[in-house]
Amino acid sequence: MIELIVVVVISGILAVTVSQLIQRPVEMYQAQSSRARLVDKADTALVKISRELRDALPNSIRIACSGRCLEFLRTTTGGRYRAAPVSDSLRLSFNPADADTRFEVLGLLADSGSIQTAAGVNACRNTTASCLVIYNTGLLGSNAYNMDNAATITGVNTSGPITIDFNNAGFSSTYTVFPASSPDQRFYVVDTPVTYLCDLTAGTIRRYQGYNIRTNHFSVDSHAELISQSNPAEDALLIDQVTACDFSYNPGTPTRNGLVSVTVSVNEQTESITLMQQAHLSNMP
């Protein structure tokens, strides 16, 4: 009996010692696994945002909602328009007296099948047709959000000379054609505005598209505005478990690209991580 008691006591001591030796590595493994999941979740979201920013129309980045809303106009394709010779009917003129509604594309037009066409001048603003944008500086008189330099694409011809037909009559009281030419004869095709909205109450970042192009930023209650307007936005959950986030934008200069910085913090039980991603944007209009 005494021997049995001694064996039980020794076995108990060994069990306690071994459990203490094993417990810490197990806890460390669980914590590391939790952090890895959080890092993967946050990194996937940030990579998604930074990759899509590559398709942003130059100078169309807007930050609102105290740094919790990021908006831009997404491009699907683009190219160079023909501006010479002056006597050619397929060149693009910036003289209001010419009232051009068609121009020839120099070279090929990539992804022409993604261009949506419609007859109405407001189809571009309502995202029921693609927008033709030329020389977007984001400044007054050359701001695509105001439709200063945007037009509804009414037709695309890819057989023979590649041409684009457009309608921008009535968008501006000053211009009946595009207000300014691009130094490099560039044009862009925009299909929709895109907004990433960080909702700290819900702990989410959601992505919105397909809503009307509007002049002003959204208010703090962006979700309600986006969903309640005449052309409701399509939304999708990008990431949850968000505890903090921030969008910031440093516009480019003639010698430096624009820079978008995105910071997000996510939490799972006792673990929390914060990641930041930066995207360089070419703002050559």
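(the above was protein one; protein two follows)
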Amino acid sequence: MRTSFTPAQLVDPEIAASAKAIRKCVHCGFCTATCPTYVLLGDERDSPRGRIELIKAMLEDGGPPPASTVTHVDRCLSCLACTTTCPSGVDYAQLIDHARAHIETHHVRPWPERLLRAVLAGVLTRPGRLRAALSVGRFAKPLTPLFTRLGLKPLSAMLNLLPQGVEDRGVTQKNPVAATLRGRVILLQGCVEPVMAPHIREAATRLLNRAGYEVVLPKGEGCCGALSEHLGRADEARSMARNNLAAWTRAGQVDAIITTAAGCGTMLKAYQRVAGEAVPAKDILEFIAEVGLPPVTTPSGLAVAYHAACSLQHGQQIKTGPPALLTEAGFDVRTVAEGHLCCGSAGVYNILQSDLATRLRDRKAANINRTGAVVVAAGNIGCMTQLAPVLSVPVVHPVELLDWATGGPKPAALPPPQSVIPVSA
């Protein structure tokens, strides 16, 4: 695709990177078949190819973008399924993140939108504020139908996503490390997951200890910056990245920085682009696949539907390892149809674009139900939160199942075995 950036514009590294990405697009259209919004809406402007055209025009023109461009960029989930199918290697992540930052800087949204986006950025990235907000939200949850009737869709969407209970238990370091210490790793503490599902971090710690790795939780670490990046708040995301880089430096030498939230892992692997410094980031499932699963002691044979988070399969290009680990651990892994399509979570997409997110969620849930599995394994807290309310089976993180299979406790979300009632003679 031809571009018309001026030499003065190309001095900007972001413009130069985006221009390079745009020029790689040959308009082949392979991306349209895997783009969730194009599959739902059939509008070329809601396909990656169409959005690239809009982003190109917006960046070349500079200044405030047309309202229609903002609409179609906002509808992008950043699932990056297009990057998996693109034969030309277009760096779509660079383009969509740059477009959002440009819109944030040059476009004035209506004040309710500005307020909502500021609240999301200010609350979800800080565990203390999120814990308080969830406590208030549980009292307001019965009012969800009223908010829906009043047209307050973002508020209704947030309340619908609330889990039954929230408890930040922290991580207990009482798990014995294997006799032979193989190394030490940092486990990203994150912001949303430790409040909404602290048991995931606990399971990851046990599994890593069992595999022979000391787990380090650095002081001063904070949000990875993914949510701010998706909201177009590029400077804020860059500041968060630099804060984490400093915290990890103080923690000393480690073999890897492990994440249990796939969305965070995608962000960490983009730190070279975001903050100018690469880090040895690994998803927990990626790392365990490399170092080896500890011996399996509790093979259950449970039928597990593996939901591949977009940030894992497309953002990090980790596809076969997680289901292979679950199979190795003794689970009957079921493939979910249309596994390449997003569930609609996508950070805060299910709040900002709740109608589209709901359609994607229901489509994903229907495909999961067809597997006949008794549990769903999803490697991202956003996907787990999005799917849990509409599934009749529990949703757990794969690391919980791997921890259980190798000697840890059974995931609390799994129901106890049904008791057998003897039949009278």
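Reviewer note on protein two: Residues 111-160 form one domain.
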